[in-house]
Amino acid sequence: MYRFLVVIEKADGNYSSYSPDLPGCVATGSTHEEVEQNMYDAIVLHVKGLIEDDALVPVSQAFSEYLVIGEHVTA
Questions:
Q1: pLDDT tens digits for 30-48?
Q2: What mean pLDDT value characterizes the chain?
């Protein structure tokens, strides 16, 4: 079993996604749900390709956090 961070971004009229741990593995979709499914499928194919090529499947190193920026921000 593998686990990868996926970043989903809202674009003009659709969504795009990528995984920082899998360079070149990207997907798009019309909705959040569609891009999530498309990215899942892309990761499966990407990992299968790595395994078929006898390449190492990377261990996920990426993580994410939200930072709250507030009172010290002035215009």
A1: 999 999 999 999 999 999 9
A2: 94
Those residues with Cβ within 8 angstroms of residue 10's Cβ, 6 or more apart along the chain or in another chain: none
Secondary structure of residue 15 in the 3-state scheme: strand
Considering its fold, how many domains does the chain have in total?
1
Which residue range(s) make up the domain with 20? 1-75
Task: Measure Cα distances from 41 to 36, 45, 69 in Å.
Answer: 9, 6, 35
CATH for 31: 3.30.160.250
pLDDT at 60 > cutoff 70: yes
Query: How far is 55 from 47, CA to CA, in rounded Å?
Result: 9
Q: What string of DSSP letters covers 31-63?
A: SHHHHHHHHHHHHHHHHHHHHHTTPPPPPP---
Residue 28 to residues 1, 9, 31, 48, 72, Cα–Cα distance (Å): 24, 9, 9, 20, 36
